[in-house]
Amino acid sequence: MKVYLMTDLEGVAGVWDWDNRGEPNMPAYEEMLRSRRLLTGEVNAAMAGFFDGGATEVIVNDGHGAGYTIDIEDVDPRARVIHGQERPFWLALLDETCAATAIVGAHAKACTDGANLCHTMSHTTVADYSVNGVSMGEIGLQALIAGHYGVPFIFLSGDEYACREVEELVPGVGTVATKAGLSRRSACTLAPPEARIRIRQGARDAMGLIGTLEPLRLEQPLVFRERRIQPDVHPEAATGGWRRISEYERELGAADVIELMCLMYGYERPR
User: Fold this and answer.
1) What's residue 260's pLDDT?
2) CATH number reported for the structural domain that contains residue 64 in this entry
3) I need a labelling partner for 98 at 20 to 30 A (CA). Which of 120, 184, 211, 270 fits?
4) 247 lies in a domain?
5) What is the DSSP string of the chain?
């Protein structure tokens, strides 16, 4: 059984602020290196749990920022890791051959009160995404893309608010809260060793959900709506299929979620 593991950084135990690569020998740079180690530890814990639960292969998507956040030298040697930029698709290699999908290091969607480092794609521009009227962030988009291929979303670790978010979208999903957000830039976090213990157990248990959880699907065609933080949706933004709703909102129609992502980000449709 193949598991597709997405990763992010903001929901990792011990991470509370936006990563700032800074300059070598500066505090921000040292903190970035520590965050990479913390994420890699959680990735390894999740992988161990999936293999404990019967997985035969795990594809890991280094999904944060510039695409090189995971420490490739310390990751579990059983992993195949997707990293780098200019990818052909956001969730490359996620398709019907996967038995399940999951994420570690998850954060809540934009404008979630109290959630640590909450955002949707951009932490400076997007206030909300919705698909067919269902508000969702990056977690929901991942679950919807997986659902397109009949793949269930089985496990998430990250901020407590992210856990609540996925539980509303996918009832019965396995979750592990590594921290409880106190504000956008503060959290009460588990110690990393304890977070890894819980993640391994949660990932192992989540493997038992395969075959019981329904993949996330919405009625097609889809209507996607984007709401901005600032009133910067200008009339000329109504191009490429976009329709301007107001100075804060615009919407886009698509036959399915794969076409939606291609229209939004300029991908060629995966074969």
Assistant:
1) 97
2) 3.40.50.10780
3) 120
4) no
5) -EEEEEE-STTSTT--S------TTSHHHHHHHHHHHHHHHHHHHHHHHHHHTT-SEEEEE--STTS--S-TTTS-TTEEEE-SSS-SSTTTT-STT-SEEEEEEE-PPTT-TT-TT--BSBTTTEEEEEETTEEE-HHHHHHHHHHHTT--EEEEEEEHHHHHHHHHHSTT-EEEEEEEEEETTEEEE--HHHHHHHHHHHHHHHGGGTTTSPPP---SSEEEEEEESSS---GGG--TTEEE-SSSEEEEEESSHHHHHHHHH-PPPP-
